[in-house]
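2024-03-11 09:14:02 INFO queue: dequeued item Ribosomal protein L13e, len=206
2024-03-11 09:14:02 INFO validating residues
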Amino acid sequence: MVKHNNQLPKNHFHKDWQRRVKTWFDQPGKKKSRRVARTKKALAVGAQPLERLRPAVRCPSQRYNIRIRGGRGFTIAELKLAGIRKKEAKSIGISVDHRRRNKSEEGQQLNVDRLKEYKTRLVVYPRKAGKAKKGDATGDDLTAHITRTALPLPTGYTAEKPRAIEDSEKEVEAFQTLRNARAEKRNLGAKLKREEAARIEAENKK
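2024-03-11 09:14:37 INFO prediction written
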């Protein structure tokens, strides 16, 4: 018997569930056919990078910005500086992100160098044998050994070797220096306003 003041159960045990159950006995076969299809597609496409080239970007927040990770795509400005058109970039395995913006010259130059290095390693086979277009590989490049591994991401920083702390470094108060720099930046507008007011007052007195 059901205890407490609950809803009475209405379990429908007389439904013919055997006719409504779905089976996946073809799962191993489908798995194999998908793998074979992927192999055929890779052979038909030819030699190409295993993954698209992505930019090196800093992780967000002050806690993780020392790390460098792969971004979504290169900016239009980076592609322009590297001499690559947006449409061309998509056709040669370079990811493009039109929403990303460059916030530092160092980060922008890092990705421009990354694109230029990729271009030096790139081998573009002509669509039709013997009919090479502008930018297609010719001669020994077509028979040279190629690698499909992507360019590795650069390291975030270079670690210094251990050394003794100098006396001049011990005297520097790093925390106070940072606090003063922050305060100076915060009060810069008010400082300039006071100076401008004093200058106008001095001119009026004259």
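2024-03-11 09:14:37 INFO annotate: Residues 48-142 form one domain.
2024-03-11 09:14:38 INFO item closed
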